[in-house]
Structures are given as C-alpha cells and as structure tokens.
Amino acid sequence: MSKETRAVLLKYWGYNGFRPKQEDIVDAAVAGHDSLALLPTGGGKSICFQVPGMCLDGITLVVTPLIALMKDQVLHLKRIGIPAAAIYSGMHFNELELVYNQSVFGKLKFLYISPERLITERFIEAVRRMKVSLIAIDESHCISQWGYDFRPPYLRIAEIRQYLPSVPIMALTATATPRVVDDIMDKLHFRSRTVFQTSYERKNVVYNVVYQPDKYGILLRLCANMKSGSAIVYVRSRKRTREIADYLSSRSISATYYHAGLDAKIRDQRQTSWMKGDHKVIVATNAFGMGIDKPDVRLVIHHDLPDSLEAYFQEAGRAGRDGKPSEAFLICSDLDVQQLKLNLELSFPPLKQIKAIYQGLGNYNQIPVGGGRDQSFDFDLAAFSNHYGFQLVEVFNVLRLLEKEGLLMLSESISAPSRAMFNSTREDLYRFQVEQPVYDVFIKFLLRNYPGIFTDLVVIHEEEIARKTGMELAKVIQSLQNLQKLEFLTYTPRKDKPQLVFLSELQDSSLLYLSPENYTDRKQSATRRVQSVIDFINNQDVCRSKQLLTYFGEVQPRRCGKCDVCVRRNSLLLSDVEYDHIRLRLNSLLNERPYPLYEAVKLVEGFSEEKVLSAIRWMIDNNVLEKDQNDRITYRSKTGIQFN
Questions:
Q1: What is the distance between the alpha carbons of residues 460 and 479, in angstroms, rounded to a whole number?
Q2: What average pLDDT score do residues 615-641 get?
Q3: Helix residue spans in 263-306 (DSSP H)
Q4: pLDDT tens digits along 470-483
Q5: Residue 424 lies in a domain
C-alpha cells in the first residue's frame, strides 16, 4: 500500500516522501486500525488523514473544533481538486442539507464537522447512509478532562461508532501528557491501543526564559536584532496587542496586531499582511496561530505567562517550521507570577455570578426557559458585558465553564461571505420572471454572473451586484431577501461575528448546577498546570528543552546546549557529569542542614575547589542556592511561588 499512498502524496501534495512517522500512521489507517498520532506543531498532521482518505473508498469524517481551520483546509482541498465540505454552527438550513446530500450520495471525499454537530439527529440520520471509510479526530486532547483544552462535545464522539462499527478512528494532537494519551484512547473506545509518536524535540528551536522587569526593553532588543524572517508576540489581553504593536511601530519595527474581537475581514487582512511579510511582527492573543503554516517564523515571544506548558509549547512551536534556527523567549517578572495566580482565580467565578451571567445570556438573546436548543446567535462579548455591567473577563470565563458543562458553545468569529442558490427549477424560475418582471433583470444578472448557482451555494458580493446593476445596495439586499421569502432562493448574508450556540434548552438559572468534574476538579487541574508554568520559569538548573520534554513524558531527553540555562551552565567549564555529581553531593549535604561555603566546598570530594566554587556560584546566581543570615549556603526558599 505504501506505493499507492506515496503516489497519492505526490499527485495531490507534490511531496516525494513522507515525514517521520507519517507513513506508518497512513498505513495503519488504510489497514483499518485505530491509532493515535502525536506529532509536534508543524509535523504535518493533516497529511496523515488526507492521504488515506484519498486511498480508501468512501468519505472521511474530520472532527475539529476550529471553524477557521476547517474552512482553510476545505478551501485548500478544493484547490487541489479534492471535493470537500464543512458543517459548523451558524450555517443556513438549506446549506446544511446540500452538504448532507453531497455526503450521502458520494459527492465528497472529506466532510469536516464540529463536534457538537456530530451528535445531532440530522447528522446521525445522514451518517447511517454515508459510506464512511475513516474518522479523523483533530485536536484530540480536547476529549480528555485532564487536558488543558477540554471540550464536552468531544466526549460523545465515540457514540457514532455504534453506527460505523468497522470504521477506523485516527486521533491526532500536537500536545498530550502520558495521562491524556491514555484518556484519549479510553474515551474513543480504541480497539487496539496503537500510538505513533515522534519526539517532541525541536532541535532547531531554542527555548529561553528572561526574568527581567524591563520587559518592553527586552522585547524591543529581540525584535530589532532579528535579521530575517518574522515574529509572533503573544500577550493575554486584546488591549495589549494594540499597545505593544504601537510601541514597536513607534520604534521603526513593522508590527500589526490580531485578536478575536476584531472584525473578521480585518483579521484576515492582518494575517495575510504578516504572512506575505508586509509586517515583520504580529502581536496577538492565543486566538492567533491555529492552522497558520508560515515557515520562516524566527522568533516567538511570550510577553505574558501562558496558563499551561501545553499552550506554551504549542505556541512556541510555531517557530522554525522550515527547520532553520529559531528562538522562543518567555519574558517574565515577579508581577507576572502574581497575575497568573489572579487569572486562575478569575477563571472560576462564584456560582452566584455564573447564574447571573447565564440568565443574562438567555434574556439578551430573548430565549425563554425551556427553549433555545441548537439555536445559534451572533454574539458580541463586549456589547453583552457592557449591557449588563459584567466584567468582560468574567463573562468569558463563565462561557468557558458553561461550555464545559455542555450547555452552550461560543465559536470563534468567522469570516463567511454572502452566498446564494436558486431552489427552483429553471422552468419555474422563468415563469416567475414572466409573472414578476420587476425581478427579471436582477435574476438574469445572477444567472449570468454566478455559474453554479442552481446546484450550489455560491459566494456573492452585494456591493458588486449593486455597482454593476445600478441598484442601491439596500435594494439588492431587499431583492435577495424577497426571493428567499418566496422560496425561489436560499440567501445567507455574510457573517463576521462569533456564534453563541445553545446546546441544550435554557434552564431556570436558580436551578443551574455545575458538576464537580467541570468546576472543582477542573480548578484543581488548572492549578496544577499553572504551578507547572511557575516551576518552569523558576527552574534555573535544568535545560529548558529537557524540562518541556520531560513534562510530556519523554524519557532521558538530551540537553539542548543553547537555551538560557545551558548557556549559563556552559560558562562553568564543567561537563554535565561533573556538574550533576557536584549538585547531587550538595543536595545530600544541604538536605541535612545549611553549611558555610568553605565547609561545603571541602566536603564535595573528587573535584577541584575551583570547580566546586564555580558550580556553587552558578547555582546562587540562578536562584537554586542562597546564603542565609549567617552566611551559610542553603537551597533557595520557594514559598513566594507556592499556592496558599
């Protein structure tokens, strides 16, 4: 089968060979085996299910929570001649029916679908009639309650296996701890526990932590010293994306900013501008980066601390996808640690406030108790917060909690152009034109300028129609709406706002209940992840790459030799073995009691005093050791970074 899969890879994607592990993953899918693929960011996950999807007879279902990503992949597949479509919240009923029919009648090779749509009655009805050859679960860490981005709809993915008992599942993710790996396979009811994993190690990416109060100064020097390529600067707030972009621009560094609150058209423009190299730096929240495959990102800077090492590793992994030397910098200060702890508390508001915001969501969208199931609404987070006087960050975190409980879902803002399709036959439409001549010129224009409008929802531009027909824009929109009311046309106006989807009937807020799994347990889990970030930035003794790889379960990872920890270690003129022996001996001594410096040096046998002193000085400089009030050396107290 490898010969056939390589031929498909070359024909559609133009590659002569697979990357490490890709071919094994592809062959397992073709052979009908369940498998979990753990590939780092930029490791080519989509190829792993797209190639077997083209080799197998039938349609491949691709489950992903990211609307922007599914739209990009569908567009790319269509460009290379592969029929594909997507189903997600906010689509018009007729548009959904068209995609379902194409899937059932074998017109598609790939159907992308968001997880909450996967369990609807309409989808189940359709999937029982589809010839499905493979189910691919992207971002599969979302299925695990131990993961950093758990999403309840993922828990029900396995339910479709009862309708497709012989169809293999391929789960894919870029970041998963050993516990999450086991949880993914359990939740998806794997028939065979096959895991394909390349090392998470990125030899060309150097991870650095800079502990420095002058964060803006460090940021400026890093960006100014970047000789080629581009950079991403991650921050936690939308406001700071603009502030930092303006700061860099005022100092002659070409920068723009990006966050989910911007108009979808503006986001697309800024992303395109950065991708083309018109801007050297893009300052963004974590809304930016999924599905972005820019090879020459030389620098990823975190100007604020991330919530988890999973998020940090995935975002930093957007550097150096072309294999060339690149760097990731995490710039932090003591204030950042305090802010990270505060953000943790804000992520889990009191139940009273959660109930108030939930009730507000129902009132704002005019949904009665018992109604709203499967309905979606354009939703402006800032406008809602201002309307009721809620804090924006509080509303955002409540939405996340309610999503975890499976009550609703807030999709990312999508850029969906207007589309139209005639529902009637040509004969019926012609009779209508004769009977209603006021629409004749308008209909003829649509037929001449939008080929395929009888068979598919095609993209239309109201402004262009107005300009070419001489009609006022409002009249064009009114005509489209009238034709839809008369059932001659399906018209979906463009969307550029996030979609709030109610996954179940609106409850009486006084009876709202949050399960311990989604509140208490997840708060404890989030606390552990935050502590891992704090431990990472404070550990000046272990190579940054080794710390990250160990966190993700790799055994005996190698020291990179290039990060901030390794550079300082290299200056000691000690080998790893020598340093480890001195450190272990000091550990044994100092666990008993503090020691005067001269006494500790003498008790570390087998090394010159110069080497022992060098190691001790380095450990003091890097906050591993400290001197007490009696000038004795001891391990540095970490009470300042522990949770109460």
A1: 14
A2: 75
A3: 264-276
A4: 999 999 999 999 99
A5: yes
